[in-house]
Amino acid sequence: MVASITKRDWEEYMAIGRVPLSVREPVLQSWQRSASSGITSLKSAPKLGESELVAHRQEARRLRLGARAALQKAGYLLNHTGNMLLLCSNSGVVLDVAGDEVTQARGRENHLHVGGRWSESSIGTNAIGTAIHLRRPIQVNSVEHYCEEIHRWNCAATPITDPADGRLLGIVDISWPNDVEQANAAALSATLALQIEADLGRHHAMEREKLMERLQMRRRRLGSDPVLVLDRSAREVFASEDFRRLYDGNEALNFLRACIPNLMGQAPEDIAEALSGSLPGADLEVIAEGEDAIGVMLSLPRRRPVPVSHGAELDKIGRIGAVTFELCRQARRLAGTHIPILIEGETGTGKTFLAQAIHRAAARPPGSFEMLDCSTLTTRALREDLARETRRSAMLEQLAESGGALCLDRPGSLPPEAQKLLLSLLEQVSARACNGIKLLSLSSTPLYDAMQGGRFRGDLYYRLAGARLIIPPLRMRRQEIIPSLRMVAERHARTTGKRELRFTSGALSLLEAYHWPGNLLEMSNLVAMLDALSPSGLIDEKNLPAEMRRRSERREEHTLRGSEKAEILEAIEFADGNLTEAARRLGIARSTLYLKLDSYGIARTRKS
Ligand SMILES: Nc1ncnc2c1ncn2[C@@H]1O[C@H](COP(=O)(O)OP(=O)(O)OP(=O)(O)O)[C@@H](O)[C@H]1O
Predict the structure, then answer these.
(1) How far is the CA of 341 from the centre of ligand 1 (A)?
(2) Is pLDDT above 80 for 312?
(3) Residues 491, 468 within the same domain
(4) Atom number of ligand 1 nearest to Cα 488
């Protein structure tokens, strides 16, 4: 008996009737705790169910990864020695076992094996549970175990602490039965714990390097916003001077840092969700390596807008998919000619964007690009333009002389008298200027149909539509939806100087199935809205507007085949049964359209 044990303690334990005479003080204190937790003599430790164990192992995956090499090597060396090696979580659950196989089989009988829970409160005094309680190494020999059934075991356990922040990560334990000689177990378990901690330290240093790499990449793209990068323990990896100045002693930041270490085992999107909005005004990005979060980046975006007229180049636009690639290829060829181009497409398909790209591809350096919204042109104003030197006719002449471009938006909205006057004005200006104007027109309804129906003058039509480019609606080129989204999100990030939105696979599949009546305009609005509302920048299904989440209600229409068939019928309808025209609208070859008609069982008895 050790001096510090009082007579009263002794009497208490004698009352239990099982205290060994040679008991050491830490063991006796552990017995005291075990007795007060009401533990009765158990044959084996409680065992976790399959799914509980999977979750437990998942949560401790960093520890398991850090211990893998040590466990493999020592486990191999301990085979046929009667010793086994256990890696346990910080709540005493056995995560992995290695070493002597016969001993492992005996361990199973007491659940001294994977899934067994060896905390003190589960099975009383034992090296694993008692080391967790004491936060230091301990060896517990046979009768020192609180439960009699465990007396056949000897165990030496050492805590493993996180080299980043000193938190208890788990326990490494050597166990052997009474009939096996073992003198060095305590030293071996301490050495293994040191090796595991060294390996964890190396992983941690690599993670910090990765966080710095991500920061460099972000800075290349977005410049030098005030930024703070924290590792998984919320320790600073990098902080810019301005961030430090702005947030020194900030309570919200301190609270956020306190939350980070406890969240790190979770999925990156769950961490982002949990931390969202915790630092108002800052963008928060959870940095992950594969599925594991390794840190958090906080930045304060400086607004550095790029002029809106600065769109992408034709080559870049063409990268989103085969249909747009072909369209841009034609556009590039036409850009180098004086042929007037009519661009048609539903609202928001990117007609203006394409017209600007054509203009930039046409002239180096490009002259000016003037948009003329025909829906605002009145007959009176056009008459004045024709009759005398108005501001607009001066502008048109200047454009013509300098090789600039005139882009007529919605010419189909002009009343008949105004159409005639516009034609005269265009002819007058071209006749006087040597270079001529690069003429582009945009229409969201088929202008040819309007001409056929007598609503648009034929002479003006042919003056505008030397060549036609038709941008199919997004829903007719579903494979281009996700690349378009990425392009729009990337452009939004660049023009606002903010972080780029990321989407979960669930959100992407809903967006891909959505029918996008407002095309790229709707997509641009969506990206701006999500960016404004999402503190984390990670977009999940539930962040999307209701109409985009309603996929299941219109399943048939939203299967790829279902929607493609509907689009084909719609295009044929639009083209008044003319299959060549329908194929053009769909952005596919006529032969491809025939194949699709056959596959959907649609009769080919249409005009060609
Ligand atoms: N290739 C693209 N990449 C990124 N954003 C694009 C692209 N094309 C268009 N956008 C964006 O989509 C939105 C709609 O484009 P745009 O104004 O060119 O469409 P539109 O067909 O001219 O529309 P409307 O018929 O309503 O005038 C704009 O915000 C534009 O910046």
Answers:
(1) 17
(2) no
(3) no
(4) 4
